[in-house]
């Protein structure tokens, strides 16, 4: 889970950085469109994964006491 969390944070930071680059340096319009089409969904999804990667303390205890064995 730590690997997923690290990758998600890296993707989030890179996508926010690329959005800021497009806002500050004003590149050609096709570059801005490409950044918008790629970076905005990646930032939203990676932030969602980071949020989901955090578990509640109660959930962690429940997983340790009674692991999922299937149906």
Structural class: mainly alpha
Domain tally:
1
Alpha carbon gyration radius: 18 Å
Please, what is the average pLDDT? Answer: 84
| Continuous helix count | 3
Number of strands: 0
**SSE string:** HHH
* Amount of beta strand: under 5%
Which spans of ≥5 residues are poorly predicted at pLDDT below 50? none
How would you describe the shape?
elongated
What gap, in angstroms, lies between the N and C termini? 24 Å
The amount of helix comes to over 70%
Largest sheet: none
Could you explain how this protein is built, in words?
It contains 3 helices and no strands. With 71 residues, it is mainly α. It has one domain. Helix 1 packs antiparallel against helix 2. It is elongated.
Structure summarized in a few sentences:
The chain is 82% helix and 0% strand. By secondary structure, the protein is an all-alpha fold. The two termini are 24 Å apart.
Explain the layout of strands and helices.
Blueprint: H1 2-25, H2 29-53, H3 57-65
Key words describing this protein structure:
71 residues; 0% strand; elongated
